[in-house]
Design brief:
612 residues; single chain; mainly beta; Maltoporin, Chain A
Amino acid sequence: MKYIVAMLLCCAVAQAQELLDEVIVSDSRIPKSRKSSGKAVVKITAKEIEKNKGITLAQLLNQYAGIYVAGSQLHPGQNLSYFIRGGNNRQVLVRIDGVVVSDPSQIESEFDLRLLALDNIASIEVVKGASSSLYGSGAATAVIDITTKNTATEKTSLSVAREWGTQNTHDQKLGSFSDMQKQYIQLQQSIAKIGLSASINRFTSDGMSSIVGSETDAVTKENIQFNAKSQYEGPWSWMAFFQRDVIDSDYDDAFTYTDASYNLVSKNNRYGFAPSFTKGKSSVQAHVSWSDTERNFTSNFPINYTSNVFTSELTWRYRVSERLTLLSGGLFQDIRSKNTSILDSFQHDNVALFVSANWQHPKGFAMQVSGRNTVHSTFGSHQTFTINPYYVFSDSETSYWKLFSSFATSFIAPSQYKMFDPSYGNLNLVPEDNKTHESGVEYVAENSRITVVGFQRTENNFVDFIFYPDFTGTYYNNDESYKVRGIEIEGNFSIRNLNVQANYTFTEKVKQEPLRLPKHAANVGLTYAASRTLWGVHFRYVGTRSDQNYAINKIEKLSAFSLMDVRVSFPNFIGNATATVAVTNVFDTSYTEFIGYSALGRNITIGLQYAF
């Protein structure tokens, strides 16, 4: 491990000229260059997504510092755990096309990233650290801000893609290329200054078992998306969308680790409309959206969950001067959920007001401050704030240093299940309260970037569960205070056609023994652009972890593991056709991600894409 860290410290992100001009939004909700941002934001561009074709969203996120999505190497229908900066699912907030998404029927009310297809995504921004002052409940360890593909030109554009792949576990003979298949089609057209985009993605899998077993558990995923976006000149603009994501997955018995004929069907529909008005120094943006989710479990204990979320948000941005920009906004949410085990549905409202100011001095010193007041119809009001000073100085026209620090508070509202469930709920719960300190340094030059960040988070009012002697139980706020700290190092370097991207993450839960969270993790990626091919190699290291063995009710230690993937792309090898070949887990490494569950071995994926 020490050699990996030493290499990362010597590495300095590729195509740095693009980084110098790169625009990010999510850290302050105001578009600005990376240089003018006070946070270390992960920006995953369309180019990065394109060169990682064939993997899932969770596997892509795992390539970046501070992000560990557990379950990404398992059966494609397996639940995912988002351990970003040592947090949990409830501490991560997800936005899609500017709208906060969640599923209040889940125990933690999180959004299920399994539903999304990487082919439908144009870019991703991940803001690590506390952001509740700008985004509300759940933005305690990260905000994953996803933008879908919604651009269009006057000329009709049609893109068709197909993938075939094996789905082997360790030490298994090469399987059939029909074990995993994916089809994608996207049509884009501009009519009467309105850009229209539609896409369909279908994924099928029937090559591996959910637990270590002899049968296979089939999975089908479908993604349908329609977008309309104004393209005419003038102060007014708007965007409308409909997105439907479905996963139909067989699964096995998670407590006895035996094959079972269980099935989950999860459906999520999202509708949204976002008008905006810009004139002079002022800009007003509105979002109105509706989301409904249905989850059906077929097992020995069948159950059905439904949820509905209505969200409306209005933000106003005003550029006072070249140095100062102000932002304010308000949000209203109506959130409802229900399951078949009870007669009544759960319902609560959220109302929030927030303000923010971004100030930057010509000599390099800058400050971003924000505050938010959220009123929850059950537990009342809660306030959060952020103070983010930073300093930027340039040693040439094509390089700069940035020193940044922040202190921010965040909160996690108790889910509807934890509050309202008639068997285990507790209406006296209060929000979990997180306080995060963060400091870092970033250097960007013409062909390199290196970022080093250290953080510490204190968690209070943790919502825990207690069992009573009569086998009942309830949720309650734990009086103990918990600390999580860590270091993230990211380095990228490019020489001519070679690009190196590397990172190392250290995460420690102080005086705690977390499950499935590695203390050490690292990634190294190499990309080489030849005359007619694009070569890529990715190495991933995951340190030791602990996991619960439910069969014997014991916590066990899991060994560290390393995986290597290789891919080659042939852009425009026949007209506008692009072909890709990828080999994952090249050395067929044996490893355990979750105790009792199947993990992916060596596999081959072949992809073809044609643009008309």
